[in-house]
Amino acid sequence: MLDIRTATSHFPGIGRYVTNLASALAEQLRPDERLTLLGHPAQIERFVAEQRASVISLLCDDSPFTLQQQWRIPQLLRAQRNTAAVSLYHSPYYLMPYRPGLPTVLTFYDLIPLRFPAYVSRRARMLFRFTAQMALCTARHVIAISEASRRDLLATFSVSPERVTAIPLAAEARFRPQPRAAVEHVLARYSLPAEFLLYVGSNKPHKNLVNLVHAYAALPPTAPLLLIAGPWDARHPDARQAAQQLGVSERVRFLGIVDDKDLPALYSGALAFVFPSRYEGFGLPVLEAMACGAPVACSNASSLPEVVGDAALLFDPNDVQALTEVMQRLIEDAALRQRLRESGLRRAGTFSWRRNASATLDIYRCMADIDA
């Protein structure tokens, strides 16, 4: 059973993970296997309409965050186990029902609340640590979304290494180089110039946008527009304030949330993609950008080097001058951009949801054999 209750707009990253995983799992089931989804009626109806008959559903109106789930979900799972309908439960979030009554798999993403305590309340940090530790103790096996995430988990919590497997994420199939007409349509829709540097992601402090703006401000005034696309949290206005103070507010555009269907063309149209994050569990925007043929420069922090391999320019996220120099190279060197474009496409091709689901199924099957 895969819990898809987090497939909502409140969890864009986790929602994307769980829906892509569910689709890829459904395509690889053996004749004697079936995938059971636990979710809200609307989530289930949308998914089952697109999938094979091997996918069945259990409707559940409980949020993953209510106390009610602590007894409702285990009750439901035990009933399924008693009828041999379900053999394991996979939670894609660190809030797991207590004593679920089935062997469990947990997906673990990152340690942002603990790595950046200055930006998270003490209560939130304590709650994260407690609930994560409880979920990790409950889970028979844990899936980390990168080797860096796995190392963080093992260094922070009491978990046996053999219980944790790193299975990398992937870009969706729609992220691929777009035709020029599609790119021009999106550029016109957002009133964008032909050349621009692109960042996609939130403005949370660990994303390091203040350093990105400072590095950009050191470029010549003729540098292409810097486009910052993604959800804007008004609690963190520092990057916008920095652009105003440095006199580049006319050349740094904060686009806000971009329609998902426009992202592939936006990546494809970028002169280069720049990602200065100080910490990522995986770093999906970097992979999406490479899959769309954008030359990529990203920080050398956490999981990013393992995602990009040798297909991107790396820099220290705390070195503003180094970031300026990297952007200058990308702007001036067309041959470099072409090399990065080609190597990025090759690198992105090594990641797929089919591979992710296959590795996940291996864990499911191993657990089912042990429990048989």
UniProtKB/TrEMBL annotation:
Listed InterPro entries: Glyco_trans_1, Glyco_trans_4-like_N
UniProt keyword annotations, A-Z: Transferase
Pfam families membership: Glyco_transf_4, Glycos_transf_1
A GO BP entry: lipopolysaccharide biosynthetic process
Transferase is among the record's keywords: yes
Residue ranges occupied by any Glycosyl transferase family domain in the UniProt entry: 195-344
Domain Glycosyltransferase subfamily 4-like N-terminal: 13-168
GO MF term (any one): glycosyltransferase activity
Keyword tRNA-binding: no
Protein's UniProt name: Glycosyltransferase family 1 protein
